[in-house]
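In this section we turn from sequence analysis to structure. A common task in structural bioinformatics is to predict how a protein folds when a small molecule is present, because the ligand can shape the pocket around it. The inputs are simple: the amino acid sequence and a SMILES string for the ligand, here zinc ion. Study the lines below before reading on.
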Amino acid sequence: MKECFNEDNLWGIDFGGTKIEGVILHSAKKPEVIFRFRVKTESHLGYEHILDQFSKLFNTMKEKAGYEPMVIGVGSPGTYIPQKNEMKNCNATVVNGKPFKDDLERKLGIEVILANDANCFALAETKIGIVQELYPAADVVFGVILGTGVGGGVVVRGEIINGKHGIGGEWGHNFLEEGGDSCYCGKSGCNEQVFSGPALERFYHRISGKKKTMQEISLLAESGIDPHAQQTMDRLIHSFGKALSVVVNVIDPDVIVLGGGVSNIKQIYSDSLKTLNQMVFNRSFDAPLVKAKLGDSAGVFGAALLVGKEKSVYEEN
Ligand SMILES: [Zn+2]
């Protein structure tokens, strides 16, 4: 589409492990990409360097747009704890314990709305992704990222539920397994330590003595020649369904949307629902479990869409 830079644009930045990506969307009503740019994260060079990279990216965006926005959305792994004004559990560990939101606001010179990347994923899939396409009337959406980690995000009537302590949707660290593997969050047996890609690969290695990727394991299970691969798939299907049933009994979502590498495994969609149905309160959960459609772009789109709400408030005023 023709570039159309003006104050209705939504600006967002996604803070990733290898890249920091910025996007400018046309507007909340028409969220199409009009500019997109990325820089390397290089977190091994330290916290100040990461802030400098944000600044470099933001300056490029400003140059291109020819103006400076009032507010920008930033999606980040980990959790920003508002009471302590610090980051926790971010995989770019140099950011942990730092007043990341304040530092970004100081560095960029504008207001920053900071949200967890799984929450941004859920928001993007709800507003402009698969939920918008297939179930636009959905009130309550639960977004799940199943990949190298496990993340969750709750969106109610178009808004992320961040919660009082910023941990709304942190389902990846719900407790699932007694005596389970220890987790970087400080606990053990978390969902992430049971059915993330690496956790399942570890499980397969433990029972078979062989190292395989999750994709290889699912193909071996499909071919029916490897009982250990089947056992690993059963573990995924059963534990994922069980963990989802907890969410369903609390928020009863209209749609559950799945993203991340493990979401490419087809059996999840049919078989996990069977486990889920045995465990939820009314035993007949019929809400759809669908695959995300925005891919890696969900994070940065979600970050920009964080600003959508602010914009509508400005417009009302
Ligand atoms: Zn954990």
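The CA atoms of residues 106 and 112 lie 10 Å apart. As an exercise, try to locate the residues that line the zinc ion site and compare them with your own expectations.
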